[in-house]
């Protein structure tokens, strides 16, 4: 087992006029539950459907309609909680969060304020090999998503699309344990990775499938340590919340801007107002949206349409038994089982499909060279062609056969790359291709000796020099390889060249 006790990395420090400041960040990530139907209705959650085509009477808040909890969404939230090493609450309850907005026909959002379905958990955020930040999860609650107001289709009117209304969201709330822009992005990335492994959220940020509200404050060095030791929020600075970010890059830019803005205010002797802000990617700045609202502004109260949600311990245990191997465990296993670096293990376990592909290639073969081929040849090429591993033109079985051909000495590493190219563009069985295209490595000493003799005879001056300067032998090896179209076994060529030169 890999040692998962990580070093504590240095906090992100930004220097201001009157000295250094530390950034403190807590995130509220909204992850859309991967589910065919909505949280309280049977309407479809399909993305990109005709506007207002996936709206049931419940979603449209028609009078007398009652919400009915979707068991699958509850199971997904539980699964997520278990995947984040969190406490699952056997009793939770739904509350109404009241506010008016055209894309919210009910006039309230059904959420879980007082009794969330999942309590405290934690995520290890990898910062560098061997270095990770432990970010504590405060809670995960289930809630409805709102619809979409559209203001840019017509100069006179606004439109509303209720397809998203009532889709299940998991709000994953972290403690303020994150300490810089890169770390915040890495945290969201790690969450997304775990959710995808679990199959509880697609994590497609572009489609708004995963979005984050980012809370940012600044404090003096040491204050955050003091907060971690005491749990006392008062030693931290006042925070601002930047809403609804759906890009890793914007998250980083917004934090960078917001931290500097707050430092400037503090160094001018002012104080930071707690408020909700929006990030404008075009201007690269955050601007005020509204002053911070408190829970009482929303007149939260228990939703009278829904009973408290009670789940069985045995049901939770069954979900637990069905969890897949998660990223941290898989990565640790790859390091020990295949003897690869933590970095390579991280690359190969970035998503489940890549990890499975690698394991199929590595099965019964040398793990390190399998890792090399998958990472350097395959991933490099997939990236250049903008392809997913599931669309790879070279299957794991084909790549495995190529490795076997190298292992048997049938082809050299160099020829193997050419073979890989052919399989990539034309397909086919690599072993048959080697035969039919005459790519087999020449190990027949007689044939190689002939080629060596010819090169020596053609270059008598070079041969004389090489006798006195063994370094020049490499030139002959190169010439012989060229003369044999790269098919001569390089080891044999090397030996014969040296023998011929009397080295
Ligand atoms: P509220 O319920 O008033 O919105 P919470 O305590 O639930 O406040 O925190 C909301 C989010 O803000 C959490 O993700 C938390 O980690 C984060 N947060 C709280 N205090 C700070 C702070 N001083 N700096 C940065 N983030 C913070
Ligand atoms: Mg809160």
Mean pLDDT equals 93
Rg of Cα set: 30 Å
* SSE class: alpha+beta
Query: Which word captures the global form?
Result: elongated
Total DSSP helices: 16
Q: Main β-sheet, in a few words?
A: 9 strands, mixed
- State the oligomer: single chain
Distance between the termini: 48 Å
| Quantity of strands, as a count | 16
Uncertain regions: pLDDT < 50 for 5+ in a row? 1-5
Topology:
Layout: E1 13-16, E2 19-32, H1 71-83, E3 91-92, E4 95-98, E5 108-111, E6 121-128, E7 131-144, E8 148-150, E9 159-161, E10 168-174, H2 181-198, E11 210-219, H3 223-230, E12 240-245, H4 248-267, E13 275-280, E14 285-291, E15 301-302, E16 309-310, H5 313-321, H6 327-338, H7 342-348, H8 352-362, H9 367-384, H10 396-407, H11 413-426, H12 430-436, H13 445-458, H14 460-468, H15 473-483, H16 490-501
Parallel strand pairs: 12-13
Antiparallel strand pairs: 1-2, 2-10, 2-11, 3-16, 4-5, 4-15, 6-7, 7-10, 8-9, 11-12, 13-14
This protein binds adenosine-5'-diphosphate (ADP) and magnesium ion (MG).
List keywords for this structure.
9-stranded mixed beta sheet, alpha+beta, 3-stranded antiparallel beta sheet, elongated, binds magnesium ion, binds adenosine-5'-diphosphate
What does this structure look like?
By secondary structure, the chain is of the alpha+beta class. It is built from 16 helices and 16 strands. The strands form four sheets. Strands 1, 2, 6, 7, 10, 11, 12, 13 and 14 form a nine-stranded mixed beta sheet that branches. Strand 8 and strand 9 form a beta hairpin. Helix 2 (181-198) packs antiparallel against helix 4 (248-267), helix 8 (352-362) packs parallel to helix 10 (396-407) and helix 15 (473-483) crosses helix 16. The radius of gyration is 30 Å and the shape is elongated. It starts with 12 loop residues before the first strand and ends with a helix. The model is unreliable at 1-5 (pLDDT under 50). The site of adenosine-5'-diphosphate has 16 residues, from strand 2, strand 10 and strand 11.
């Amino acid at each position: 087992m890999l040692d998962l006790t990580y070093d504590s990395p240095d906090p992100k420090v930004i220097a201001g006029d009157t000295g250094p400041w530390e950034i403190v960040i807590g995130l509220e990530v909204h992850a859309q539950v991967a589910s065919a139907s909505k949280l309280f209705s049977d309407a479809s959650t399909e993305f990109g459907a005709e506007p207002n085509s996936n709206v049931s009477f419940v979603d449209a808040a028609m009078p007398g309609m009652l919400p009915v909890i979707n068991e699958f969404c509850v199971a997904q939230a539980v699964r997520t909680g278990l995947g984040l090493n969190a406490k699952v609450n056997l009793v939770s309850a739904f509350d109404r969060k009241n506010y008016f907005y055209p894309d919210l026909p009910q006039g309230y959002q059904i959420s879980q304020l007082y009794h969330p379905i999942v309590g405290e958990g934690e995520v290890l955020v990898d910062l560098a090999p061997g270095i990770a930040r432990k970010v504590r999860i405060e809670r995960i609650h289930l809630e409805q998503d709102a619809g979409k107001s559209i203001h840019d289709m017509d100069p006179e009117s606004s439109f509303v699309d209720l397809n998203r209304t009532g889709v299940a969201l998991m709000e994953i709330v972290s403690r303020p344990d994150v300490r810089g822009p890169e770390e915040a992005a890495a945290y969201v990335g790690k969450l997304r990775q775990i959710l995808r492994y679990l199959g509880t959220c697609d994590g497609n940020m572009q489609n708004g499938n995963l979005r984050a509200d980012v809370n940012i404050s600044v404090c003096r060095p040491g204050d955050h340590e003091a907060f971690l030791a005491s749990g006392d929020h008062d030693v931290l600075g006042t925070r601002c919340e930047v809403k609804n970010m759906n890009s890793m890059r914007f998250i980083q830019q917004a934090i960078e801007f917001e931290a500097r803005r707050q430092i400037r205010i503090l160094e001018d002797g002012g104080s930071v107002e707690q408020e909700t802000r929006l990030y404008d990617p075009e201007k690269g700045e955050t601007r005020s949206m509204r002053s911070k609202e408190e829970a009482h502004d929303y007149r939260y109260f228990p939703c009278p349409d829904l009973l408290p949600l009670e789940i069985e311990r045995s049901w939770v245990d069954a979900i637990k038994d069905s969890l897949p191997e998660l990223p941290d465990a898989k990565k640790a296993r790859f390091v020990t089982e295949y003897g690869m670096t933590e970095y390579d293990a991280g690359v190969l376990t970035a998503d489940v499909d890549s990890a499975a592909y690698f394991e199929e290639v590595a099965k019964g073969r040398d793990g390190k060279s399998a890792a090399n081929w998958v990472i350097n040849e395959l991933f490099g090429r997939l990236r250049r062609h903008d392809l997913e591993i599931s669309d790879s033109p070279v299957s794991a079985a084909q790549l495995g056969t190529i490795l076997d051909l190298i292992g048997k000495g049938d082809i050299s590493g160099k020829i193997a790359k050419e073979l890989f190219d052919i399989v990539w563009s034309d397909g086919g069985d690599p072993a048959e291709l080697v035969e039919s295209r005459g790519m087999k490595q020449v190990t027949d000493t007689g044939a190689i000796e002939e080629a060596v003799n010819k090169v020596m005879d053609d270059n008598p001056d070079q041969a004389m020099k090489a006798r006195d300067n063994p370094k020049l032998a490499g030139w002959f090896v190169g010439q012989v390889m060229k003369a044999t179209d790269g098919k001569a076994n390089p080891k044999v060529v090397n030996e014969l060249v040296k023998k011929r030169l009397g080295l």
